[in-house]
Amino acid sequence: MSFIRLAARSLTRPRVALTVPRTQTAIAWRAGYSAAAGLSRDVIQTRVLEVLGGFEKVKNGKVSVTSFFASMCPETEFAQLTPTASFAEDLGLDSLDAVEVVMAVEEEFAIEIPDAEADEIKTVQQAIDYIAKTPEVVDQPLLKIGCNLGEGEVFHLDTKTLQYTVEQFEEAVTCLALRKNGPGLACAAAQGIALLEGNSSFKYLCQPLQNAWAPYVRFNDGACDSKGRFFAGSVYSSALGIPGQLWRYDPADGTCVVVDEGPFTDSNGLGWSPDNKTLYFTDSKANIIYAYDYDSETGAISNRRVFTDALVQGQVIEGFADGLCIDSEGGVWSARWGGSCIVRYSSDGTIDAEIKFPTVYKVTACCFGGPNEDKLYVTTAHCDATNDTEFAEEKQREFPDSGHLFVVDLAGKYKGGKWRYSFSG
């Protein structure tokens, strides 16, 4: 911490946490990290500008005016109090002034910005960006279902009444898709792509894994593209050297082919950008989300590249990338297994939003839903989901809501995209 920043902090009054009123609904959730939680970027921008507008040296030292009025008085120096203004060049603030401005923003939103990060905030836009990515905290589940890992059981939930039924299957059902041309659901099951038949049984459409591999590996997460093809990844066996692979099943001709040999570890969350030109695919234990160029007409993928690598990019986030979904702006929401959070990646692979679940350890997947597609439904796993019984009981006491279902109200901030398509078979 610089001396200037330390001195300025010592002169301020203690901060008092602010609360933001919430409309009570049947959905039980709470965002309690700061007064910025749940606010749209537009609201944050307005409040940051109001804070700066009330700052004495900005208000009295220079005047915020329109560019037209400034052009009429070229001999006069004016401050342009806009989101693009810099503290020094545009607003004429020295380093101590800038510290006081940042602290005023901290107080407005009831947060405390780490000193190293605060020292990097030198423009109005940087202050807005920092507040906008303030994590939301959700600590109340929508439904306490006590799910272990959620694979092998299918929950049918009425989101209005919160009543649900459970189907138990003999084999793992690892992901689901609505059907475009038939009743019920399609799924990836342990050994291939299948149709659920409504009586705790399913019918395989294809079982492409080699017979020798079947006892050791299985399919995992998947999703359908805009043409109704089913993409799903398989998990690996490190002991036997069996790689995880990415597969594509096309109901139009019944073919099921490997579209990327990998080798991957635990294949996981995948989805498409809003323009259908990019496919995202998660390799969980490598902690990487890949991006591919995508041809929606043929289902072909090419040009695999790293979209985000948590270790290489130095992202300070715990756990591993798990399931994902994509919003209408193209943001990629990735659940963090063992990280107690979901993070949103912008199109350049940087994190610009985060939702924390302090009572959950293993966050597994997320999906937008609700009438306006602005509710984020979040699944989690029990701490003993991978049979790590030595530490599971202790972890479960520390994270007692692990295994429950959550929902986050993102109205006014984000909406789901149209990438979660139906199966055409």
Short description:
With 425 residues, the protein is α+β, with helices and mostly antiparallel strands. The protein has two domains: 3-134, ACP-like (Non-ribosomal Peptide Synthetase Peptidyl Carrier Protein, Chain A, Orthogonal Bundle), CATH 1.10.1200; 153-409, Neuraminidase, CATH 2.120.10.30. The chain has eight helices and 22 strands.
Cα distance spanning the termini: 61 Å
At the fold tier of CATH, the topology name of the largest domain is Neuraminidase
Cross-sheet strand order for the largest sheet: 1-19-18-17-16
Q: Which stretches are low in confidence, meaning pLDDT under 50 for 5 or more residues running?
A: 1-34, 61-79
Main β-sheet: number of strands, strand sense, barrel status?
5 strands, mixed
What is the average per-residue confidence, as pLDDT, rounded to a whole number? 82
Number of strands: 22
Order of helices and strands: HHHHHHHEEEEEEEEEEEEEEEEEEEEEHE
> Strand content of the residues, in percent?
25-35%
- Shape summary: elongated
* Count of individual domains: 2
Q: Give the CATH H-level superfamily of the largest domain.
A: TolB, C-terminal domain
Just give the CATH class of the largest domain.
Answer: Mainly Beta
* Oligomeric state of this protein: single chain
Helix content: 10-25%
Tell me which CATH architecture of the largest domain applies here. 6 Propeller
| Separate helix tally | 8
Structural class: alpha+beta
CA-atom Rg in angstroms:
25 Å
